[in-house]
């Protein structure tokens, strides 16, 4: 009886968790248990049969997309059937992959599994007709009979139920003939084979069984997160899974659960410092290998040796209980407004190819204005505090970070997030929770007219209209081509270009997509050159845009006007191409932050010199500075009784407001804050303004 009380206590804690913890920690507990199921599966492969895999993110992706597609195309299918099918499909792939891997050992097997994960991610990207590729896939709610599992609590209980079943199966596996064969292989393949154990067969079974566990976890992951993007299933996720089983203890069922809890909570804690993750996880691995080679559970077992089995179980339960209770320490999500402060935040790119933009817009833009504001007393006596997390331009991470900001940190509103795919991925969640999304640094028209969204730049279709009317109308160009990023960002521009060219009785003579994260665009440039367009639009991220300009220079393609689009139109990013950027044209949305004599821009430069003297003024930090200024104007108009609904109403009253940075701003029912831009051309590394402000009504 005494030996069972820890399990009973854990069962009570698991059952009561949604009633004890804030919403975000219910979501986080679900993620811990999903990762625990993956760790259990990986332990079967690595802990029992010594086959180390760095490809389990690929198996997770297969299970996740299988369950998501079933939910989309077979909406009446019960969730147990969806999860079972996700596991079986993934197991079939695991078996197919396991057979050729039988000849591989050690480093060669590790490299093969690593390549498998990369292939799966590329397949998801390229099967965009089925998976929506880089745009990401929104997952509908799971159904259990007539009930939709639409709340965090209902999804949590689903995950707990499945996790208990999978854990019980893993515990009892070693009591079966198959489990004993696995253990014999772990101890010595040669001895096992000499004893009559068919090693090849059981290794293949281990691959299939491990894949089944991971596929079921993938299905749960899809329903818990609600949005899938191939970026989320990269090699670093596979490394996370390996770290889980090493930290917890190879071959240990309790270790899998503890390792999953530790790593998941660490990832959550490092959400604002993604660039430090490899360093932190590397240090943890080295520490475990040096001081706890058997993992946390083995270390606990040695400490509690006198009554090993009972004490060990108690210790594991204690570790999990402490982890969960520490996670629940914040009492509840606040609205983000107190008597003394207003809390704002966003998920942004502080790592990866858009790290410069994200850091400048937030820490040297939004925060720059708020520093000056707080020094002068804040807004109606309240100072503004900001919280940021890093999503690395990954939509799925943006969703998780936004949930954390709203449910754990209790922010009042989201301000100045970056990137069309991450921002679009968070729209449904923010709309449902009635959280204002203020001035995102993206221009997809999908945000137009949403009650709680106010755009942060001239939307892409308006930009397209101005660009086409200027180039086809005033400058009389007739042939156009486009090199665009194959996601929401690029496609939004592509559709707008096609529509606006049609108004002038013209069409794109060529268009070539570039997958997100791919920088080699030589093949696309060669195809675009063939029809000899007079104008070629670049709708790309900075690194791909720079490569396109260098490739164009390399092949001597000089008879086209290269036009940068959207956020790419900035001297710093075009400057990555060196002298290949000379002569590039585009539509700039912001005045020159270095030379402009506009009142607001001069105030921006003075604040930058005072607070961040070593940071050079640029259009990205100016955009964040303007976003903070516009929020402050709305908050002042709302009055001391600041509410989300009040802020929305106050922003809608802005008519002809002079910021000293942009032409007078009027915010209408469409919630667009900008409708203008001016034409520029790169001349000796700087933009030369060619027109006055252009508008598109």
Structure summary:
The chain is α/β, with parallel strands linked by helices and 697 residues long.
Strand content: 5-15%
User: Using only CA atoms, what is the Rg?
Assistant: 27 Å
Q: Helix proportion of residues, in percent?
A: 55-70%
The backbone outline, from C-alpha atoms, is globular
- CATH topology title of the largest domain: ABC transporter involved in vitamin B12 uptake, BtuC
Averaged pLDDT, please? 86
- Structural class of the secondary structure composition? alpha/beta
How widely separated are the two ends?
76 Å
Indicate how many domains the architecture comprises: 3
Question: What is the number of beta strands?
Answer: 17
Number of helices: 26
Do you know the CATH architecture of the largest domain? Orthogonal Bundle
Name of the top-level CATH class of the largest domain: Mainly Alpha
Major β-sheet annotation: 8 strands, mixed
Low-confidence stretches: 308-312, 319-334
Question: How would you summarize the topology of this molecule?
Answer:
Blueprint: H1 5-20, H2 23-49, H3 56-73, H4 79-98, H5 106-126, H6 128-131, E1 137-138, E2 142-144, E3 147-149, H7 152-173, H8 177-187, H9 189-194, H10 199-225, E4 227-228, H11 235-248, H12 253-269, H13 277-291, H14 295-303, H15 308-327, E5 341-348, H16 355-375, E6 383-390, H17 395-408, E7 413-415, H18 420-432, E8 437-438, E9 453-454, H19 460-474, E10 480-485, H20 488-503, E11 508-514, H21 522-529, E12 535-539, H22 542-554, E13 561-564, H23 571-574, E14 585-588, H24 599-611, H25 619-638, H26 644-651, E15 676-683, E16 686-689, E17 694-695
Parallel strand pairs: 5-6, 5-7, 7-8, 8-9, 10-11, 10-12, 12-13, 13-14
Antiparallel strand pairs: 1-4, 2-3, 14-15, 15-16, 15-17
